[in-house]
Amino acid sequence: MENKSEIRIYVACLAAYNNGILHGRWIDADQEAWAIYDEIAAMLKASPRPDAEEWAIHDYEGFEGVRIEEYAGIDSVAEKAAFIAEHGELGAELISHFGDLDEARDAMKDRFLGTFASLADYVEDLTEQCTAIPENLRYYIDWQAMARDAEMSGDVFAIRTARDETHVFAGADMETRTYCFTWRGIEIEAIYTPLQWKTIAHLEVRSVNPERAPLPITETGYRSHFHQPGTIEAQGGDVVAQIVAWLDEEAQSPAWRAHEQAARQLSLF
What is the pLDDT of residue 2? Predict the structure, then answer.
């Protein structure tokens, strides 16, 4: 927000209030906590009731829907005000989404994927960055359904702050996961990190039995693949199914067919 005073709290003197006297002060919340405390102390000092010490927050403005409790700690109020001042409605929506300021901060810092006209536009943009879509198939893709699946699975979540302004975040499950499966008799291990170094996703594929057996995507039996975060999630989130589809596609190459033919010939001896 351009005007810091728009985010403010009304602090009332309880000694005066309990005696039927309205005495308090509107205080800018977007400042250091100690500065807010100083203003509260000055308000209490000016109270019509002697020895006034207790206070409460009786009103607030500019917090974009975030609830401020009557007896909320000033440190918490100041931190929320600063976050909302920096990020506006999006910051407030993040606090409401998580119910926790620290989680909102972490999401803004580590999991923000960008702003798009809609979640479907994000899924379409991400898919086009990572996959060549034949023109004759493009109009059959249901981007809305893909976006809905990605959000329902928890892989992403979106906050809409305007008609054509949707902020997309990676889901909470960003831990590295390991998958084991068998493809055409080869036991394979896949390690998937949805978000690495806060900027990219990482997929490792290796053959474990036979160890280092060649695969259509790697002659050495090991492949390290970096890609845009959310790519796998945007296409359903099934890591194993997408690796198998990748292997099946590459297995159609002349080089792999020649490899399989040579392996079959060797098996005859």
Answer: 41
Mean pLDDT of 67-94: 96
Residue 50 has pLDDT above 80, yes or no: yes
81, 63 Cβ separation under 8 angstroms: yes
Which domains are delineated in the chain?
A: 4-109 (no CATH), 112-170 (1.10.10), 177-267 (no CATH)
Closest C-alpha among 85, 59, 65 to residue 5: 85
Cβ distance 199 to 112 under 8 Å?
no
Residue (of 197, 198, 205) closest to 239 by Cα position: 205
The DSSP line for 97-117 is HHS-HHHHHHHHHHSEEEEES
Q: Cβ atoms within 10 A of the Cβ of 104, count?
A: 24
Cα-only R_g, the chain: 28
Query: Looking at the whole model, is its pTM more than 0.85?
Result: no
Torsion 28-32-36-39 (CA) sign: negative
Q: Which of 33-37, 46-50, 121-125 has the lowest mean pLDDT?
A: 121-125
pLDDT in tens, 107-121: 898 788 889 999 999
Rounded Cα distance between 63 and 209, Å, is: 58
Both tokens of residue 181? Answer: 């499966």
What distance in Å separates the CA atoms of residue 213 and residue 117, rounded to the nearest whole number?
Answer: 45
For residues 230 and 30, give the distance between their C-alpha atoms in angstroms, rounded to a whole number. 35
Q: SS3 for 220?
A: coil
Assigned token pair, 64: 């974009």
Euclidean distance between CA atoms 211 and 192, whole angstroms: 20
Strand partners, 82: none
Helix, strand or coil for residue 200? Answer: strand
